[in-house]
Each structure stands twice: as structure tokens, then as C-alpha cells.
Amino acid sequence: MEVVSLVNGCSGNTAGKVIICKAAVAWGPGEPLVIEQVRVDPPQKMEVRVKILFTSICHTDLSAWKGENESQRAYPRIFGHEAVGIVESVGEGVTEVAAGDHVIPLFNGECGVCRCCKNPNTNSCEKLGVDPTKSTMILDGKTRFTTADERRQPIYHFLNTSTFSEFTVLDSACVVKIDSEAPIKKMTLLSCGLSTGVGAAWNTANVEAGSTVAIFGLGAVGLAVAEGARARGASKIIGVDVNPQKSIIGKQLGITDFINPRDSDKPVHEKIMEITDGGVDYSFECVGNLEVLRTAFLSTYIGYGTTIMLGIHTSPKLLPLHPMELFSGRKVVASVFGGFKGRTQLPHFAKQCMEGVVKLDEFITHELPFDKINDAFQLLMDGKSLRCLLQI
Ligand SMILES: NC(=O)c1ccc[n+]([C@@H]2O[C@H](COP(=O)([O-])OP(=O)(O)OC[C@H]3O[C@@H](n4cnc5c(N)ncnc54)[C@H](O)[C@@H]3O)[C@@H](O)[C@H]2O)c1
Ligand SMILES: *[C@@H]1O[C@H](CO)[C@@H](O)[C@H](O)[C@H]1NC(C)=O
Ligand SMILES: [Zn+2]
Ligand SMILES: [Zn+2]
Fold first, then answer.
1. Fewest C-beta atoms under 10 Å: which of 2, 113, 227, 255?
2. Which residues line ligand 1 (CB under 6 A)?
């Protein structure tokens, strides 16, 4: 097969050829990513090859990179699932996108034909729904990445997206075309964090005007919940975070009250009960911590309060609830990608974002060149960034 190297910036027609380009490869849990040359195969049947323009780092990349869950370890691997790019070429049978289209990768795909895709009450997809344990293409169980050296070692995929690369190959169910007029850089946020948070408030909770909300964990996901709740007219949006800096950014993004659990010995749920005269209508867990999930549960109004779980739990522990506690009328539900069906609903959400329904700019706290990806990981680990955009 013909090979084109993009290492020296040469381009031309690359369709149907192997592309050699830069990627950030993870060689082991917690090891710094290595920017190196990789081979990216052409897209096969119903696949799309995308040139990534911008990517950012979500806490899910951080957990996976650290290897927090043993069943998800596969190395070498290319992480990354929050990005925006341009279609370079498409494989056989792909009609919905074409070379040159601006696209957002979807870690939670939408095949459009399975029973779940046809059901309006879920954004699960039986074929290409998110599964962090998977690391090869669904078509043939192989990778489209290999090392550029003589060994041609397979490099595993992540969440069907693997965006920490100049080029990546995705199933066509895992890309959505966006308006070419949309501000492309900001659209990166819609690929995971922003859609997940706003969608959890809009689609999963369906927050109404005047309702009260508590959000645990004020990263990009939690603050996107705040923006979603603010846009719906929630009367109180209580933010809870152990990092005091988050009260400052939080106030710009919908948070009306801030609680740092470390500031007092009084249990957080008791404080929330006080502020809201009995508990919030909706609480959101955006940390991935079972104790926090329990506090979020205890913070809702007895009789009808709903807790929405967004944080990813890597430990094999079960829910921290006694089954009878649910007889109080309180509910717990989970939200993946904010309940959005990626291919059918994201274009409209992108339009709403462009109209200013929710803020975008505040979520981009840092920008760095792709080579500095390890610094961007550090910023997220230190709680200094919401999203750091990497230009590839
Ligand atoms: N459900 C989904 O579809 C989906 C999508 C994206 C991310 N996630 C998950 O959502 C979570 C948040 O992601 P993010 O990118 O916003 O992460 P982040 O690291 O930017 O934010 C996490 C926040 O939680 C705070 N925190 C940590 N421990 C806390 C505690 N005990 N009490 C209160 N706050 C605490 C941190 O200070 C930080 O501000 C992660 O678990 C991530 O894997 C889920
Ligand atoms: C994509 O997701 C599907 C469903 O979880 C999985 O079977 C497949 O292996 C994934 N592919 C990649 C490249 O991650
Ligand atoms: Zn994510
Ligand atoms: Zn489907």
C-alpha cells in the first residue's frame, strides 16, 4: 500500500494511502505520552479518516491514562476523545460525510438502526455505544494505527475516537457533521464535556425554571451542568468542590452558592438542606467518587429529588445506597454524553451554542501546542484548567 509521510508537512492526495503523522502515544499506565510518528491506515468499509485540528483532555482520558481500571488497560494506546476535525477521506459505503466536512468525533456512537437508536428515550447504541474496555475497530477487530518503525506494532484505540493524533480513523457512526460556519475551535467542547454537562441538565434531569440544583465537582462537566441549569432558569445552583479556586470560575458559569466540604465539619448535605429548606430538586455527581455520590443523594428533597450520576467509577464497588432508601421517592439515574443522540441531536445543540444559549469561552482556560500535551494533563490533574485546547 502506498504511504505518505506528513512529517515534513507535505500533503497532496492522501486518500487510500497510509499516512505517517504525529500522535501522542501512551506506552504504559501513567507514563508521559510520547509524541512520535505513527502509521494511520486508510478508512475501511463504513469508516472515516479525520484530520484532527483541536483536541482537549477530559478527566476520562486522565483516568484511562493512569490505568485506574485494570480491565481497560491496552498499550501502546492513543487516548483522547474530545476534538474537532476535517474529514480527510471516507471508506466504502459512507454517504453522510465527505472529505472536507467539519466533524465532531463521538465517543458514544449512534448507528441509527439498532433498537436503542430507534428508541427516543435513550442515547445508548447497541453497536457503537461507549465501552472503554474496547480498543480495536468493530469491523475486523484490528487497529488502524501501527508504529512507524520496522516492528509495525499495533497501537490501540480509545473510546472509538483516539483524538491525540494528527489523523484518526473512526466508525462513521462516531462522527457528526457540523456547520462549516461554526467557530471550529470552540466546537471541540461539544465533543464531550460541554454536551455531557448541559445535556445532563436538559435531557436527563429536565431542569425546570425555578428549581434548585446542587453540583458536586466543578470541572468542565460540572460547570457545564451549571450553565445548562442557568439557561433553564434554575433559581439556585449550589456548587460543591474541594478546590477553593472553583468558586471563582463557578460564579462566571451559573453557580449561585459555593460550598467547600473542607471548610467546616458540618456534613455538606446538611448545609444544602439548610440553604434550600429541605433539599434540592436535582443533584449531579461530576467527580466519580462514591462518598460524593452518597452525599449528592442525601442532598435532594425527600419524596422526589433526583440524583444524576455523571462521574466515572473505576472501582468495582457497588452503589452506596440501601435499596429501601429509594422508597423515599428519591431517584438515582446515570447520564452518558448528556443523553444526547450524537448524530441526530448535536447539530441543533451546536446551533444553540452559537446563539449564546450557554457560554463556551469560559471553558477554554488554556491553549497549548500539541507537543505540550503532558503539560495539559498536569494542568487538569492540578485542578488549574477546565479545558486546555491543543492545536494539532
Ligand atoms: N458521563 C459521561 O458521559 C462523562 C463524560 C465526561 C466526563 N465524565 C466524568 O465526569 C467526571 C468529571 O470530569 P471533568 O473532566 O469535569 O473532571 P475535572 O477533573 O475537570 O473535575 C473534577 C472536579 O471534581 C473536584 N473534586 C474532586 N474530589 C472532590 C470531592 N471529594 N468533592 C467535591 N469535588 C471534588 C475536583 O476538584 C475538580 O474540580 C469524571 O469522572 C469524568 O470521567 C463522564
Ligand atoms: C467502538 O465501540 C464499540 C462498541 O462499544 C466496540 O465494539 C468497538 O470495539 C469500539 N472500537 C474502537 C476502535 O474503540
Ligand atoms: Zn469526556
Ligand atoms: Zn445504534
1. 2
2. 58-60, 63, 192-193, 196, 216-222, 240-243, 246, 261, 286-289, 292, 310-312, 335-337, 380, 383
Q: 152-211: per-residue pLDDT in tens?
A: 999 999 999 999 999 999 999 999 999 999 999 999 999 999 999 999 999 999 999 999
Q: Which ligand is nearest to the CA of 125?
A: 4
57 lines ligand 2 (CB under 6 A): no
E strands in 115-158: 145-147, 154-155
Residue 323, amino acid: P
- Joined together, the cell numbers standing for residue 46 give 463504513
- C-alpha grid cell, residue 29: 499506565
Entry pTM: 0.97
Residue with cell 442532598: 299
Sign of CA dihedral 247, 250, 256, 260: negative
Residue type, 103: V
Q: 3-state SS string over 186-237?
A: HHHHHHCHHHHHHHHHHHHHCCCCCCEEEEECCCHHHHHHHHHHHHCCCCEE
Domains of the chain, CATH where assigned: 3-191+359-391 (3.90.180.10), 197-335 (3.40.50.720)
Structure confidence by residue, pLDDT tens digits, 271-303: 999 999 999 999 999 999 999 999 999 999 999
